[in-house]
Amino acid sequence: MKMSSEDLSSFLAELKDWVSIETPTTSPDKVDELGRLIMSSAKDAGLAAEVHGGNMDTRGAALGDHFVLFDPERMSNEKGILLLCHIDTVHPVGTLAHGLPWKQEGDRLYGPGIADMKAGVLLAFRALARLSRQSPLPIRMLVVSDEEIGSPSSRSLIEDEASRARYVLVTEPGRPGNGIVSGRKGVGRYFLSCHGRPAHSGRAHAEGRSAIRELAHQILALEAMTDESRGITVNVGLISGGTGANVVAEHASAVVDLRVPDGATGTEMNERILGLEAVDPDVGFVVEGGINRPGYVKNDGIAALVEKAKAISIADGQTLFDLSTGGGSDGNFSAAMGVPTLDALGIVGDGAHTLQEYIEISSIPVRWNLLTELIMQL
């Protein structure tokens, strides 16, 4: 289904409105502001919305709403297509004004969250609005607000919606060169806490037990678990602790990211990390967490989706490639359930989570054709 020049202009104008609302996961009021705008557009298009509010992360912090969009005229028990998206981003409020303003440089259009994944959400929304009453299968669109922190409050909703679907299409950003994703690593998230004994670092140093020293031992042990040959990476990405340079640290903590190629490796690594013990018996040590995204492995059902997508691209005069990647997404959940899932069907872009995040404008009509044709052929 070809995109007209008028449709492209309209797409870019609406995308600018969406990017102008900065939506870090930790700012639920801003996430909900964009959510309300999308639901208003959905109402104008004759679509209905289910809102799932009152969400919190694993530490009890508030999160934005999740919502499901669908055509009330197509409600049935028939399994259909789930378009899976998120509107939360990693960039803090203020990035648009100071670090990553909306700007165009040649074919590249920059902005916080533009690739990951507001352009993809808009692509999915417009496909739903255009095709909801003519697609062979009913379409539902799920938009969540906590994907960037591992989807702690939306996972059960994602799995519920995926159980109602015959296919799941995820509009995370397409890869440069017109790539889609047919597999992803499993993801684990762990929280380390060390509790030592404070003391003055000069006159009573021997009486102290440093939580930071204990954390340093644990960091080295964790980083040593990385095995690139097996597709395992362990990254200690956040650390904090101490109260002053002249105080033996009483508290120290860290957040750890794990990536694994499959479920068996995930089980192995989960046991290793949760089995860590304190090096200094006088320091309290706790490790919590686990695998929060199962591995997404290309199977026959996914391979069939890939071949269909490639055929559509060839007919459109394009080449398309698929790959497996280390990054996780909500597609991990549906793929692990055995629902054929195709990911990175959004607008082609790069630089996600950085101040160089962009999309390729020329890819918008290409990806529109790919997604809409795929929906119509499933």
From TrEMBL:
Q: May I ask which residue range the UniProt record assigns to the signal sequence?
A: none
Which top-level group of life is the source organism from? Bacteria
Provide the GO MF annotations for this entry.
carboxypeptidase activity
Q: Which InterPro entries does the annotation name?
A: ArgE/DapE_CS, Bact_exopeptidase_dim_dom, Pept_M20_glutamate_carboxypep, Peptidase_M20, Peptidase_M20_dimer, Peptidase_M20A
Q: Report keywords, A-Z.
A: Carboxypeptidase, Hydrolase, Metal-binding, Protease, Zinc
The chain positions of domain Peptidase M20 dimerisation read: 183-273
Cofactors required: Zn(2+)
SUPFAM superfamilies, alphabetized:
Bacterial exopeptidase dimerisation domain, Zn-dependent exopeptidases
What is the protein's name according to its record?
A: Carboxypeptidase
